[in-house]
């Protein structure tokens, strides 16, 4: 038995036989005669065209299945394949060095991967994986080995093991019945990870040296939460994980059973439960899990991987696809939240010593009206296809809201002049993510239609503790008296102004905090779809007076640890199933 530590990139436990997926093709350098150069470049071009044809066929297939997110990735891969950086540079190496086509492609891929690897930024590092995956695909065409990994349904219980896989593989492997993935490269923010989370399959990334340790049918355990991989587990370890997994599944099954019902407390107070969405592929599952709406669509995630900016057309198409998948439910589109830790390839964002205190989110949108207007036009156009809400991230006060509203107004006037249909009454919302917004909700309420509290950022800014920095994560506490006061202040002000207010940060998806949020007056929660069943179950098992009493007592305490002690004791006693540790 051997244990490996990687990065937990998508929750869940998988126990099964290894299926080796993507070993790198080994290409031995080969040189050609001068008269072979032109035919060799032709051979490369034919291979590029053939590989592109394969991707185009797959794209058509996926579009027919409405796999929007996968389709976007495929389009990006087609662009990479034909780019100067890959196809162009390979042809130049054939001409310049008289290398055979496959040797040239291998050198080019390696050069690109090395460059990305040297970057400090994790996000950019992981983008190298997409290029590598496309390059491997081209190499397989050139060497006649073909695409590899056809989606043949596998025996139940196989875990894919690869050096590097592309997000496209995630879909194909899911179709082939694989129950999880491990890769030597990659990390939490890769698009493969995003898609694995959307498919709700366990995935452990960044497990160096794994491929040479496993053979077909080696038994593996993967834990996508803790990032652990166990090769050839002994019987005792296997049993421990089998039992943990059974507990997880029983719990999920029991909770899922009630997820379809609308959430109401035992004494009849309705609580609206929405879903947070990062890929369009997640929407059907969110609806199955009982989401009544999308409370937060993080639009930037649809486009982070692109080398260019998405056109208005593309954004409008994606918004319409989301609305169709929702079948009449409301979709809340949060406008692009770029900057901070989310740096797209396509936009140059002014940097500063503290990126999360710099040009980020609405601040960038206001500085780049070209980007902002294209997105707003797309969202307004989509509004004639279903109920749309637009929400601004990181509003810090009324002046910023006025500026953003002015762009909305200009876009509405423009569309009206162009006689393009849209809903003129699309509700405009403000995310409460800065303390300055939280304590001026009464003022903001005069100029917007709804609020949503982004607790992830609100805590970061309230405690002056970078949400990405492990060293200060101990300061980041959802039960700190300051948090309770900020949320209470914001909720009371919104209620007084008659404007709906929800919570859509991670706090909303943890059943430990459901009573506190209900007690603070929150009646709308939005969370990752997988957390909906547990939260709905807590709501159904709650009498509002109990939640209010707990919150009132919590508000008298002075430290987060005192509040936590109180809340954990009450919630664990009442909701052992919903709060099961480690699932
Ligand atoms: C938040 O800050 O709580 C939020 C929901 O937005 P994000 O996590 O995307 O910053
Ligand atoms: Mg935020």
Give a verbal description of the structure.
The protein is of the alpha/beta class and 583 residues long. 47% of the residues lie in helices and 13% in strands. It contains 21 helices and 16 strands. It has an 8-stranded mixed β-sheet with strand order 1-8-7-3-4-5-6-2. Helix 7 (191-199) links the parallel strand 5 (180-183) and strand 6 (203-205). The chain is globular and about 85 Å long. The two termini are 24 Å apart. Bound molecules: phosphoenolpyruvate (PEP) and magnesium ion. Residues 296, 298, 337, 433, 454-457, 504-505 line the site of phosphoenolpyruvate.
So what's the overall shape? globular
* N-C termini distance: 24 Å
Mean pLDDT across residues: 88
- The number of helices is 21
Report the helical percentage. Answer: 40-55%
Give the tags.
single chain; 16 strands; 47% helix; 21 helices; 583 residues; alpha/beta; globular; eight-stranded parallel sheet; 13% strand; binds phosphoenolpyruvate; binds magnesium ion; eight-stranded mixed sheet
């Amino acid at each position: 038995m051997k244990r490996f530590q990687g990065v937990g990139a998508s929750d869940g436990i998988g126990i099964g036989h290894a299926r080796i997926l993507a070993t790198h093709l080994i290409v031995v350098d080969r040189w050609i005669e001068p008269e072979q150069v032109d035919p060799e470049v032709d051979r490369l071009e034919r291979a590029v065209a053939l590989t592109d044809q394969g991707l185009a066929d797959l794209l058509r297939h996926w579009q027919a299945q409405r796999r929007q997110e996968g389709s976007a990735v495929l389009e990006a891969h087609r662009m990479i394949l034909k780019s100067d950086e890959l196809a162009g540079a390979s042809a130049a190496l054939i001409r310049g060095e008289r290398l055979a086509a496959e040797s040239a492609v291998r050198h080019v891929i390696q050069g690109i991967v090395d460059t990305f690897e040297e970057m400090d930024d994790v996000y950019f590092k992981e983008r190298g994986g997409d290029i590598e995956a496309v390059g491997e695909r081209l190499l397989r065409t050139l060497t006649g080995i073909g695409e590899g990994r056809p989606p043949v349904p596998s025996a139940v219980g196989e875990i894919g093991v690869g050096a590097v896989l592309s997000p496209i593989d995630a879909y194909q492997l899911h179709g082939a019945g694989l129950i999880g993935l491990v890769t030597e490269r990659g990390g939490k923010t890769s698009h493969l990870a995003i898609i694995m989370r959307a498919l709700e399959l366990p995935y452990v990334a960044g497990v160096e040296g794994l491929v040479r340790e496993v053979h077909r049918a080696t038994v593996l355990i993967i834990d996508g939460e803790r990032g652990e991989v166990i090769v050839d587990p002994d019987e005792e370890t296997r049993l421990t994980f089998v039992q943990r997994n059974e507990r997880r599944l029983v719990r999920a099954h029991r909770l899922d059973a009630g997820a379809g019902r609308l959430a109401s407390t035992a004494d009849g107070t309705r609580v609206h439960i929405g879903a947070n969405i990062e890929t369009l592929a997640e929407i059907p599952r969110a609806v199955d899990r009982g989401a009544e709406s999308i409370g937060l669509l993080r639009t930037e995630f649809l486009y982070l991987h692109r080398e260019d900016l998405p056109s208005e057309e593309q954004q409008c198409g994606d918004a319409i696809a989301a609305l169709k998948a929702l079948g009449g439910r409301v979709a809340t589109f949060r406008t692009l939240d770029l900057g901070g830790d989310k740096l797209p390839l396509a936009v140059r964002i002014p940097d500063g010593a503290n990126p999360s205190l710099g040009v980020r989110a609405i601040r960038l949108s206001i500085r780049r009206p070209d980007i902002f207007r294209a997105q707003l036009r797309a969202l307004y156009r989509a509004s004639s296809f279903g109920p749309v809400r637009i929400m601004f991230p990181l509003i810090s006060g009324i002046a910023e809201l006025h500026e953003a509203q002015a762009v909305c107004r200009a876009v509405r006037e423009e569309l009206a002049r162009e006689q393009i249909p849209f809903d003129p009454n699309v509700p405009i919302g403000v995310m409460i993510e800065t303390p300055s917004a939280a304590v001026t909700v009464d003022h903001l309420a005069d100029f917007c239609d709804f609020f949503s509290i982004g607790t992830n950022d609100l805590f970061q800014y309230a405690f002056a503790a970078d949400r990405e920095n492990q060293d200060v994560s101990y300061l980041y506490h959802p039960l700190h008296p300051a948090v309770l006061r900020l949320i209470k202040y914001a909720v009371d002000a919104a209620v007084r102004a008659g404007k709906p207010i929800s919570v859509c940060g991670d706090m909303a998806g943890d059943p430990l905090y459901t009573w506190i949020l209900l007690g603070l007056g929150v009646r709308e929660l939005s969370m990752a779809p997988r957390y909906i069943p547990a939260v709905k179950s807590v709501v159904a098992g709650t009498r509002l007076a109990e939640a209010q009493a707990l919150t009132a007592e919590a508000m008298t305490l002075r430290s987060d640890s005192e509040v936590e002690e109180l809340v954990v004791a009450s919630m664990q006693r009442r909701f052992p199933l919903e709060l099961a540790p480690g699932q």
